[in-house]
Amino acid sequence: MALSIGLNIDTEYKKLNEKLFSLQAPELFPEPELLLYNDRLAKDLGLDVPIESNRKDFALLFSGQQLPEGVELLAQAYAGHQFGHFNRLGDGRALLLGEHLTPSGLRFDIQFKGSGPTVYSRRGDGFATLYAMLREYLISEAMAGLGIPSTRSLAVVATGLPVQRERLHAGAVLTRVAQSHIRVGSFQYVRQYLSDEDLKHYLDYVIQRHYPESALAPVPAVDFLRRVTERQAALIAQWMSVGFIHGVMNTDNMSIPGETIDYGPCAFMDVYDPNTVFSSIDHQGRYAYRNQPAIAQWNLGCLAGALLPLIHPTEDVAIALAKEVLYSFDTLYATAWNRCMSAKLGLEPTDASLDIVNELLHHLEQLQLDFSSVFFYLTYSPEQLSTGLEPWLKKYRDYCKSVDTAESIQRKMQAHNPVFIPRNYWVEKALKSAAFENDYRLFSTLLSLYQQPFKKREEYLEYSTIPDTPSNAYVTYCGT
Ligand code: AMP
Ligand code: MG
Question: Which of 51, 416, 430, 447 is deepest in the core (most CB within 10 A)?
Fold first, then answer.
């Protein structure tokens, strides 16, 4: 009998066309051990927090070994453009436990990642390393702490089954919580492999789940595309404003509800260089920092392409209507970006604040300064700013005086400039100790700092710094 922790599973996805998923028995793991459990998130979801004596049961539940009564795991089918090339895909190493309804009636996917092979695994083994799952846990919680929409991490269970990568790793299952795992690539899959009738049903389902207002619009498909576009423009602007580089913005990794999803080779930029790329496989720099808005727009173009038959029966008309929405991305993004970046300077977004932001970024690039540190110093200790910024600083201060009080500006800056973001140097150190030496001290410290990143905790400031020779030469690996 499985542990009952307040899960209220009601999986509507299972009622959709059977070509959209595949039921899958869970993999048996030799020695599941609960390593992390997100008490706060559990509480928000209406779930129990683990009682020490229950850890074994939590481990069995969150590795799929003991499922709540009547629950069947399923892998979702999808497709996607990976580095520009269309592929048929699906959950190759993830299984949906189900859709959980919270006491307040919100619906969330609860998914196991690293849970074993599925019919969509292709050449992959279906497993995940503990190292990578700890990394996803830490960074997704950091994103949530920064107030950026993201999938969340509920638990990490070590499986006891080793996973072969560049070396032998401990294997783990991450329990991920998302508004849903419906992706741009989910629509591409339906368009490519199912009928137009199925596409209509699927859109109706997704609209009802995520964008119910669109159902009332004259052309729901256009309204839906517009709302997804708005959320993505806002999301990418938030990424840019904290220096986040996703690293693998394939269309299968772009979420329809607008959450940051699939933490593979992602990382935060240190020195401000818009060409920064961390992913070991992104040789062309397709997913470089500066390209993220354009790629999001390109991905939305793929979504639009998949929706065309639902936009208008005449293709030319459908394309014209879709283009109108897609072109609006530029303005939506520019507006969102100015809002985010001006707020970092304590300012309301205006044409003048935009100039000040752009000028500052120009200096950061020229002087090769650390992106987050400069905003931190501006907020807390301008005297620590590097030389070279004085003329800009004078101009900025004059502008500040003309628009607001110093106190109000500083308050705003404190609310928008994190003290603690995942620094590659510290993240790496914490993950190595945790995954390879079973020492979770640094990991726990960083996690608690990243969950409240705007709180300036003096005794931990060391973790907001970067090594003496800052660089963006960090390399991250996909799918590990
Ligand atoms: P990603 O871009 O990392 O989200 O993954 C792209 C595709 O590869 C998805 O369909 C994943 O399910 C699949 N995949 C990634 N890693 C593995 C693995 N270890 N085993 C099986 N499939 C995988
Ligand atoms: Mg993916």
Answer: 430
CA 37 to ligand 1 centroid distance, Å: 24
Contact 192, 79 (CB under 8 A): yes
Q: Is 91 in the pocket of ligand 1 (CB under 6 A)?
A: yes
For residue 1, is it within any domain? no
pLDDT tens for residues 254-273?
A: 999 999 999 999 999 999 99
Is the overall model pTM greater than 0.85, yes or no?
A: yes
Q: What are phi and psi of 428, to 5 degrees?
A: -60, -45
Q: What 3-state DSSP class applies to 153?
A: strand
Q: Are residues 323 and 283 in the same domain?
A: yes
Tokens standing for residue 35: 């390593």
Query: Is 80 exceeded by the pLDDT of residue 477?
Result: no
Same domain, 240 and 156: no
> Is the residue at 63 inside a domain?
yes
Beta strand residue intervals within 91-148, DSSP E: 94-101, 107-113
**Spacing, Cα 93 to ligand 1 middle (Å):** 6
* Residue that finishes a domain, picked among 144, 178, 212: 178
Residue 443 within any structural domain of the chain? no
Q: What mean pLDDT is predicted for residues 37-66?
A: 93
Query: Which domain range does residue 399 map to?
Result: 183-422
Tell me the average pLDDT across 131-138. 98
- Name the residue among 194, 29, 192, 8 with its Cα closest to residue 108: 8
What are the angstrom distances between the C-alpha of 196 and each of 204, 212, 303, 313, 427?
12, 21, 15, 11, 46
DSSP 8-state code for residue 63: T
